[in-house]
Specification:
The protein has 264 residues and is of the alpha/beta class. It has a single domain, classed as Nucleotidyltransferase, domain 5 (2-Layer Sandwich). 50% of the residues lie in helices and 14% in strands. It contains 11 helices and 5 strands; from the N terminus they run E-H-H-E-E-H-E-H-H-E-H-H-H-H-H-H. The chain has a 5-stranded mixed sheet, with helices on both faces. Helix 3 crosses helix 4. The longest helix is centred in the last third of the chain and has 25 residues.
């Protein structure tokens, strides 16, 4: 089977970049640097959501389904720095050439990874192949690559389900819960920066991982809807997810499975 890699990122303000662009002194605390940037952004467009090139990657969580089974992991600080996190993600694409699946990956996650990849001198030739590379099957990438919005090698599930109309987009948490899935547990994206300042990096990682698994479960239902999975195959995949997560014994997966069973 073609490996399928579901991914999600969590970001925080790029404090070093904000200091550089706004010529702020090193003595100014990180929280104040961020708040200054938020205030300027609110004055500019009414939202404190920073531009994508000023989002620093703190966590990339992945779920991989392959012939070897199903597994979930994260690339995160403090074990790795931002450049290492991003490079390892693209190294995985280089190694496996998976189909990658995201929820709003085309609108947020991948553009962030592009900009931050430039900053950190990341190399990702397989990912950027659009039919002009030296790979044996490179010509196939002219018709199905990771970059085109309408190709399936990267499937932005949110974008596709909305028929590429922003007004049709649904929040992952709400759609997941409507489908009898757990949805978000304990945190949402707006709480990540506060959790980071408090040193709760493990909570950010756990939250990101649950988003990835929710996305995978929605994708399985999509595969059922389009006829690429039978009902029995779909249910077997759900059982594989539950069994794999339960075997870890990790608290966030116990909570996730309990919420899943309660939703069902």
């Amino acid at each position: 089977m073609t490996p399928v890699l579901v991914f999600d990122i969590e970001t925080i303000p790029d404090i070093a970049g904000l200091r550089t662009l706004h010529e702020l002194p090193p003595s100014l605390p990180d929280a104040e640097v961020a708040e200054l940037a938020f205030q300027r952004q609110r004055a500019k467009n009414g939202s404190d959501f920073l531009p994508l090139h000023l989002q620093r990657v703190a966590v990339i969580s992945c779920a991989l389904r392959s012939d070897e089974g199903f597994r979930v992991w994260s690339l995160a600080e403090p074990k790795s720095n931002e450049g290492e996190i991003i490079q390892r993600f693209f190294d995985g694409v280089e190694k496996f050439t998976p189909q990658i699946v995201s929820w709003n990956g085309g609108g947020f996650d991948l553009p962030v990874l592009h900009y931050r990849g430039l900053i950190h001198r990341i190399t990702a030739p397989r990912y950027w192949d659009m039919g002009e590379g030296d790979y044996r099957d490179s010509k196939d990438f002219k018709w199905n690559n990771y970059i085109s919005r309408y190709h399936s090698r990267h499937l932005d599930l949110m974008d596709l389900l909305a028929m590429y109309q922003p007004r049709g987009s649904a929040p992952l948490d709400q759609l997941a819960r409507l489908m009898g899935l757990p949805g978000k547990l304990g945190m949402d994206g707006s709480a990540v920066w506060g959790a980071w300042l408090d040193g709760r990096i493990a909570e950010i990682r756990d939250y990101c991982e649950t988003d990835v698994v929710n996305t995978w479960l929605v994708f399985l239902r999509f595969q059922l809807m389009r006829g690429l999975l039978t009902a029995a195959e779909h249910d077997s995949e759900l059982e594989l997810v539950k069994t794999t997560l339960a075997a870890t014994g990790m608290p966030h997966w116990k909570e996730f499975i309990a919420a899943w069973e309660a939703s069902c």
